[in-house]
Structures are given as C-alpha cells and as structure tokens.
Amino acid sequence: MRAAVLRSGNLVVDDVEDPAPGFGQVLVRTLACGICGSDLHFMRHASRMVELSGQLAGPLAGPSLDLSRDVFMGHEFAAEVIEAGPDTVAPPAGTVVTSMPVLVTFDGIVPLAYNNDFPAGYAERMLLSAPMLLEVPNGLLPQHAALTEPMAVGIHAVARSGIRAGEAALVLGCGPVGLAVVAALRLRDVEPIVAADFSPARRELARTLGAHEAVDPREEPGVEAWRRVDGRRTLVVFEAVGVPGMIDSAFRDAPPGSRVVVVGVCMEEDVIQPFFAIAKELNVQFALAYDPTEFAGALRSIAEGEIDVTPLITGTVGIDGVPAAFEDLAHPDAHAKILVEPG
Amino acid sequence: MRAAVLRSGNLVVDDVEDPAPGFGQVLVRTLACGICGSDLHFMRHASRMVELSGQLAGPLAGPSLDLSRDVFMGHEFAAEVIEAGPDTVAPPAGTVVTSMPVLVTFDGIVPLAYNNDFPAGYAERMLLSAPMLLEVPNGLLPQHAALTEPMAVGIHAVARSGIRAGEAALVLGCGPVGLAVVAALRLRDVEPIVAADFSPARRELARTLGAHEAVDPREEPGVEAWRRVDGRRTLVVFEAVGVPGMIDSAFRDAPPGSRVVVVGVCMEEDVIQPFFAIAKELNVQFALAYDPTEFAGALRSIAEGEIDVTPLITGTVGIDGVPAAFEDLAHPDAHAKILVEPG
Q: What is the pLDDT of residues B272-321, one digit of tens each?
C-alpha cells in the first residue's frame, strides 16, 4: 500500500508493507488525517527530539526510534473498519471510527506517529486497537472527526488551566493548537477570550471559533488588548506558539498573580528571566496531549455541533500531496489544517 | 547614628542622619537584624535588579532606586519602640516589636531595604509604620523574633505550593530560605521531607528543622533520595537555591505530574528545556515574600516554640562587623544566619 514516510529527514511517498491485525487489533482504511504542527516540528528537530526523549527517565523515555529507518506519521485520523484480528471483538466492517493514536501490541504501547514499525494516518491502511475505537456518531463527516485529536489538545489544556467562569483568557498563537484552545474556552463560556496572531486569516479563524477579540501583536500586544476589552478579571495566558522566547515574553507581559499555560511545544533550548515570574508569583502549567475522556469529549462536542471545525480545514490532499502540503504549511497565512485523504 | 550602607557597590559603615517619625510612624531602636541572602544577591546584581524592576510595568515597577546614592538594607528585624510620631497611636516606649519591612509615607509605600531615604535594619534606629507593628510575645528574644521574616518566606512558599498531608517534599538548597521551607513543611506534618545541599552543616540544620532525610546531591540527587525513602507519594519540589541552571535541573529530575515551587530568587538569565516540563506536564509556582497573615503566623509559630530558630543563628556582629559578615556568608558551610545587633 502507499504511505508518506519520513526518510532521512525528507518526506517521501512509497510502497510499504500492508499491516496485518493481531489479537485485539483492527485493520482500518484511513479516510482522513490532519497534518499536525508537531509533524513539521518533528521533521525539523527529529534528532533533538529523540535525544531529549532519551534523557527522560522511566516510562516517559519514549519509544526507541531509529531515524535511519522510515518513520511513520499521522496521528489525527478517522478511518473505516476493514476487519478485526483473530478472536477480536470490533465494530462491523464499514463502521467509521476514530481513536487515540496509540496501538497496543504484545511488546507494549506504540505511538501511532513517530514509530518505525506501524503505519499511521499518512498511509492507506493502518492498525488500531479494538478497545480504543470510538464510533463516529451523528453521520459526522470523517473529515471532521479527524479533528478530534487536535480539539482534544485544546480541551485538555483548558482543563489543566483550571480556568473558571468569570476569568479571562489570552491565547498567544492561532495555529491549530491555539484555535483548539479558543474553541475549548468558548465551550466553557469564558469571556473575554482574546487571541493574538500575526496572520489576519488566523485571527479571522480565532473569531469564528469564539474569540471575542483577535489582535496582531505587532500592533497591540495581547495583554494590552485584554486590558482594553476587560483588564479586571483574573487572566489565564495560553502560550500556543512553541518557539523560543515565547515563554519569557508571556512571563514579562502576564499580570501579577496570573496563570500561564504552556501548550505550544518548544523543542529548543529557551532563555527565561526567572525574576519576572518570581516578582509576579506566576503559576505555569505545562500541558501535553489529553486523556481518553477528553478525547471522547472532543468527538462528542464536534458531533453535536458545539465546536464547528469546518472553517479549520483549509486544504485537502491525497497521499502524493503530503510532501507539498508540508511545505505549504510553512506559510501560516494560507492554511490552518490540511487533511490527507489517502483513499 | 551609625548604619551600614551600600555605597558604590561596597558595604561601608558611616554616620547617617537620624530619622524623625511623621504621622503614623514610630521611631524604633534596632535590636537585631538578620543578614539575608537577598542582600548578598543585591550587592552582586544591584544594577541588573534595578534594570529588571524598571521593565516590570505598573504597581510592580519597584521603587526608583538611585545606585549612585547610599542604599539602606536590612529587612529581618526586631526593635524596641522609642517614640511615636505626632497624633500616632503606638505601643509604649520599650515595647519589643517586629514588622513587615515596609514603611507607609505620604509619598507611598517604601520598602525597608533597597531604598535611598529610610534607614532599615542595618542602622541603629529606623522608622516603622504604627499599624503594622506586631508586639513580640511570650518574652521571645528579639534575636529570635528577627527571624520572623525569613520564616514567613518559607511559610508562604509552602502555602503557595498547596501541598497536602500525604504528599512528599523535596527541598533543593538548605540556605535560610530552604531551611524556612523545611520548617514550614514540618509545621504541616508533610512526610517525608527530603533536603539536598552540598554543605554538611546545612544538611545537619535541615535535619534539626525537620527534614527526614538530607543528602549531598553530588552523591545522591535529591529525587533519587526521595525515591529511596518514599517514591510513591506525589512530590512537590522546592527550588531554594536561586542560581542559573537550578530550574532546568528541577524540570529534568521532577517526576511526571509533580509540582515545582521556585522560591530561590535567580536574578540572572536562565536556560531551560521546555520539553522536559511539557513531557511531564509539570506545574511551576513562582513564590515571593508573604502576606501579613503569614508574617504574623511566622512570629506566632516561633513564639510558641513550633519552630525553633535557635540553631539557625550561627553568628552575631555589631554594625561595624556587617561588611565582614557579608564576606563570611560567601562560605555557606560556616554560616546559616548572621544577626546584626546595632545596639
């Protein structure tokens, strides 16, 4: 079957071996898979990511990943059941499903993305774990169900922040993660939600997803915009850019006693001035991923129309279009989420 | 009167003008004043501290401090009332008092330390605000009451951490701040409390103040010691060293999902790897100072014998001895807290 794989630092499309489902596993046909900013990050920082993961002790040490072999990616997907493995209870063939991107094997839990052995969402077919399948409800389009994963990231970060009604939010960066945070804040009736991004198109998306104000930080820093539209409620700042300097900038700008949630993933060394955070007694919550309940909640919110993901989808490609789509995503003003439809 | 002042980067002892109490103010005779690590930090980083304070907007902008003029320091004190200002209700002369180190004036609130105009604890006499005076109870020695301020820093950091019974604590650094954190943790019956410091004398002090285990991090990293003696409870890590690299080291070592409380004041730029904090979803609470309730609580805990500060006092000098005492404090193994007795 066809798959887009990371080979020697480049994305290439090639034939790869068809996977065969074992006990507890289900073979599915990928219907739609979002391209995630993490994938672009990973392409750029793969060796550093592997090195840093290796430095983390214990269960977080990360999978052993061999960058000299092909690497499978694509972890935001919806798929259609083809067949279950031996002695495995699964929904009937043709059922549209999504799943957290992990596969349970006899050798342990494998992430479906950034692994050498199991095709993920940029492949025509892949294996999922039967107990983790979530049926896509309400006739929801698989293209929309594929956005369950990024929306779950936003829902998780907002849950982690502990933000309550009556508090204000500032979202720095309106890429897919920042937009998911905006949508999740809106679900909780947070007001005002102020968003900041250089790109006019992304600011427009932030407004569509629920931001009450969206500003260009070169013209008006996000915190100033919050002061203008509110300035009284306790502020929670969501850092959703993930490049060096953003954490320090949030420390510098955040009002005294506020909370900073770091949901952007900065893979590089970063410089901070602890003094700013100390003098203001900031609380900083680092957030990653989601739990199964949040993942299922994201799917439900999309299916029930509480989150409209339609405007997030700015492009669709086949597997052959994946390498070019990665290049297009370097221009944030043209795109938010590009979907791969391997079929 | 005599005072030790910071002049052109050096501590010198000289005659300064006697202060006269205005409305709401009380003239007091300084009985004892602790030398704080912040004062040593300040001597080393004064211009940087002034520059960074200037970058903080609004009410946190800090006092305008002129480093070309004499700077008064000494903010951990007990004193004896001499006389109240006009129309001011105050305890009678001879009453032993302590106070949060701030003075209310018609021009605003002045910190009693790091200001150009109002002598602080390294002077024979100073002004305090009548409404802020706390009488030293139970015949407590002024030398012990002077440690109210550093103990309040520990009580505040522990309160900020939200640590609960059933959670474990690791305290990195057993200078006066780290030791105050240990004492405050013991007050809350936290167990185990693991402390880490290079200095054998400071490790011994940590044990005296309530640490269940104290290790040399060159021989056994603090987190490893926690694993050895407990390893099961949720861990709260208190960073009480305040030099570059410590925050990143705490990020690297802290177990997944743990909380890091930064109570050491690092005045320099610092490099972190956000990836470690993100992958483990750490929560980082920066803590500074205390509130009036915590300050009064610290005095009460010392007076009632819940915290025995006696072993912390490793030296006593007169005003003339302040410059030499600052140099002695550069050798952490010889000293914890040196008291100045200006009388």
A: 999 999 999 999 999 999 999 999 999 999 999 999 999 999 999 999 99
What are the two backbone dihedrals, phi and then psi, of residue A289, each rounded to the nearest 5 degrees?
Answer: 60, -140
Class of domain A150-286: alpha beta
Secondary structure tally for chain A: helices H, strands E: 10, 19
Q: How far apart are CA B69 and CA B163, in angstroms?
A: 43
Distance in Å, alpha carbon of A268 to nearest chain B alpha carbon: 7
Q: With an 8 Å Cβ cutoff, are A60 and B273 in contact?
A: no
Q: What is the 3-state secondary structure (H, E, C) of A260-296?
A: EEECCCCCCCEEECHHHHHHCCCEEEECCCCCHHHHH
Cβ proximity of A70 and A9 under 8 Å? no
Q: Cβ contact (<8 Å) for B52 and A252? A: no
Alpha-carbon separation of residue A58 from A53, A287, B24, B93 (angstroms)? 10, 19, 60, 63
The confidence band for B61, taking pLDDT boundaries of 50, 70 and 90, is: low
Q: Where are the alpha helices (DSSP H) in A15-89?
A: 37-55
Of A160, A271, A282, the CB nearest to B286: A282
* Backbone φ, ψ for residue B255 (5° rounding): -70, 155
**Pair of tokens at residue B249:** 């080291």
∠B298-B300-B304 over CA atoms, to 5°? Answer: 120
- What is the average pLDDT value for chain B, to the nearest integer? 94
B2-147+309-340: CATH, from 2.40.50.140, 3.30.390.10, 3.10.129.10, 3.90.180.10: 3.90.180.10
Residue B76's nearest CA partner among B144, B21, B10 is B144
Closest CA to B171 of B207, B201, B147, B146: B207
CB contacts < 8 A, A to B, total: 110
Other beta carbons within 10 angstroms of residue A343's beta carbon come to 12
Indicate the pTM of the whole model: 0.94
Identify which of B91, B73, B183 has the alpha carbon closest to the alpha carbon of residue B134.
B91
> For chain B, which residues make up each domain, given as ranges?
2-147+309-340, 150-286
> What is the pLDDT, as a whole number, of residue A107?
87
Say if residue B106 is exposed, middle or buried (CB neighbours under 10 Å; 0-12, 13-18, 19+): exposed
Supply the pLDDT for residue A61.
53
